[in-house]
Amino acid sequence: MQSSDQESNHGDSRRDFLKKSSLITAIALTPSVAVKAAENQADERFAELFEKIPLNLTVNNKNYKSAVEPRVTLLDYLREELHLTGTKKGCDHGQCGACTVHVDGERVNSCLSLAVMNEGKKITTIEGLANGEELHPMQAAFIKHDGFQCGYCTPGQIMSAVACVNEGHTNSRAEISEYMSGNICRCGAYPNIVDAIVEVSKGGIKA
Amino acid sequence: MEKRVLKDANDRVDGIYKVTGKAKYFAEYELPGLTYGVLVTSTITKGKITSLDTKAAEKAPGVVSVISHLNKPSAPAYEQEGGSPFKIFYTDKIFFNGQPIAIVVANTFERATYAASLVKVTYAKEDFNTDFEKAVTDVKAKKLQGQPEYKRGVENAYKTAEVKIEAKYHLPIETHNPMELHGIIADWRPNNQVTVYAKTQGVKATQGTIANVFKIPIENIQVNSEFVGGGFGMALRTWPLEIATVMASKHIAKPVKLVITRMQMFTMVGNRPAAVQTIGLGANKDGTLTGITHRAFGETSAYENFTEGVVNMAKFMYQCDNVNTQYTVVPVDLGVPIWMRGPGEATGAFALESAIDEMAHALDMDPLEFRIKNDPEKDQQRNKPFSDKNIKEAYRVGAQKIGWNERKNKPGSLIDGQWKYGFGVSIGVFNANRGRASVKGILKADGTLVLQSATSDIGPGTGTGMTLIASKLLGIPGDKIKFELGDSSLPPAPSQGGSATLSTVGSAVNDVCVSLKSTIAELAANSNMDATSNFVDVLKKNNLPQIEVTKQSQAGKEREDYSMYSFSIHFVKVKVHSLTGVVKVDKIVSVGDSGSIVSPKTARSQMVGGAVGGVGMALHEESIIDHRYGRYINNNFADYHVPVNADIPEIEVHFINKPDPYINPMGAKGMGEIALIGFSAAVANAVFNATGKRIRTLPITPDKVLAG
Prior knowledge:
CATH architecture of the largest domain in chain A: Orthogonal Bundle
Shape of chain B: globular
Largest sheet of chain A: 5 strands, mixed
Structural class of chain B: alpha+beta
Low-confidence stretches of chain A: 1-15, 17-29
Strand content of chain A: 5-15%
Shape of chain A: elongated
CATH superfamily of the largest domain in chain A: [2Fe-2S]-binding domain
Number of domains of chain A: 3
Number of domains of chain B: 3
Distance between the termini of chain B: 60 Å
Helix content of chain A: 40-55%
CATH topology of the largest domain in chain A: DNA polymerase, domain 1
CATH class of the largest domain in chain B: Alpha Beta
Mean pLDDT of chain A: 85
Number of helices of chain B: 16
CATH superfamily of the largest domain in chain B: Aldehyde oxidase/xanthine dehydrogenase, molybdopterin binding domain
Low-confidence stretches of chain B: none
Largest sheet of chain B: 7 strands, mixed
Distance between the termini of chain A: 44 Å
Strand content of chain B: 25-35%
Strand order of the largest sheet of chain A: 2-1-5-3-4
Helix content of chain B: 25-40%
Number of strands of chain B: 28
Radius of gyration of chain B: 27 Å
Oligomer: heterodimer
């Protein structure tokens, strides 16, 4: 993001930069060939090469090796690159909780985390919660207590709810509500969500 | 059919997809060569674009194209200058701040976002006004006339009544803010074949709009919208940003995905319009209402008109011989509003139901007793009997559940430490609609039933309701039934709005099932089988892999004979902190009087959700504008407050659950709107009961409680 901003300040596009760059000689291209390459958008491919950062992370017990632009959020990486679209975008500002995932076991708003900040980390998304065909107890409890309507905030709610139980914040309905207040549900399923968490925290539901 | 086990027949049929992340919303479809669109929006409120420089944006990495009024592709319906609706990219005029003026398309979302920041725009500014309250004052000065006035009996009879009240109520702009961001994926292919993945409450409506704008045959357009992440009314029209994306796809001959930002959700996809209302009520000393006057001003935009039923309820909800109403819309330089859950009725009910409470207080009567005394026997507006109305029973049930007997008629009587407690009640009412829909049923020899209709599910549980109707009629378990929706190629159905889906589409499901049942009975008889034979055996015996039927269903003459409404009674107990002015809703009891309950679990959730929305409307929600610049200043979830989990107490829901004998074969009426209509008044009435302070301007924030 930073370098892009600077570019615009200088009024130079990246293509112009590449046309002038001494890097071009370093990769043994004559200037005229370089200009032609720029016109053919080969410069795009060079740009990608220099702008992307290698990334290694584990999502739902599967290792992914790739290269991403540093400005890509974990949320957009999951949704647009890995096509794990269970994690939702609701605000992109860490205000709604729809993008909640677990990073090394802790709940995190994936829209507030750049993908590259998660190098080497273990991510769990809603797609990785069930054990094969067997639902996680929280997923089963959400169905039983109808803890959703449209379903859009649901993956985030469930990831948050699992963390809420693991954190031990389930001593009362009020405590659950407090610790679930980072996840907005516009359909208004809150009491049902609390019912689901109460049941799971008491170990009362088996998937 | 996918594996889908319902542990409880009343569980949501698509719940398994929603809890596993497998439910696919519009933005989640993978298309080969997909590109990403990002909007450039106006930074002035009114005027004209004088230049739009896209050179830098076009040179930025990954950018495919920038489309604006300078280079838009042909949209024949937009060729003619002027008129309504707003014609995106076919004008250089600016009507509101944040108006989309260009779409930048690139090969990644990040690149499109960056490139959009490089578009340079200059404007010729004009004077504007975004202040609705100011506009109302100006309109009054000019004495503009509104819609024709409704009148029965003597006009303004309240003025000469034994006891009268007159009060003015203010509602701010509310923004729908479903959790899913709005947008669309558009894929315009050669030969003018268009596929879109939309966030819409009506796939047929979206299909029709695109066909109309681009003047291409309707059958060329395929609209997919299986899962919709909430709408609350904002997805009832195809917004300019959607047309812009279709234009972009047409222009570059590639699929384009646009997902707008949360900030943009405030400006370009509608809102509940602000309103200023005056209510006058007159009554005899014994509590008989003798006059109701309801006058309302509602917000609209300067470039498109928007109206809704703000003053409807005053015309029939109470027994009263003298009623007059007036509704006038007043334009401001903001994006055009759209129906938001409970639409105009929710706006009107805040005023009317607050005023009813004010009158009860003026009479020194229990508001419940006052309401019951003035409960109408018939609809005086239409001079017809109600098809089904059990309000008195609903009042009784709710009063008992909330503990109304603890309530003191004298405000400020219930105090516990620094908290003051109060009780409030209100009524909600909405037309029990029934439209026309078609459903196709395919009954298969493998024991399954597939039902298809181009309806939607924005959250209430359309598929679940339809499955339960079919399951009951045909005796097939729910997990053997699949209800397909959100696909414009299916038999036509209206948009999901006005609480009409269950009544409208459910009736067609009913007719399909009745027809399938009789076909099976005939086949059984023809093949000498017992009339009660299982349909699988009957189909097999007749060597039929499946039978199909399509039925169109609509209301008949009964709607001319009866006045049909759904009702809700909301009881609220609040506590108000005497030092900070904070209002906490302590307990909620909502009673639905909406005919038979077809799907008990989802129906309850809908009532709960309406109450939560009502808490937001009453205590939290207000879209605030800096009128110097015409911009929203709280256009995000940190500053625009919606209820969070900790704001919501225990909610009890009760249903009268008696079939309406006239509405439809199920006897079921819609509930989406009544779940919210009137709720905000119950909170305001409870705050008055707790504190003696009458707050007539929503939301009821601590500053108003302390100042009140």
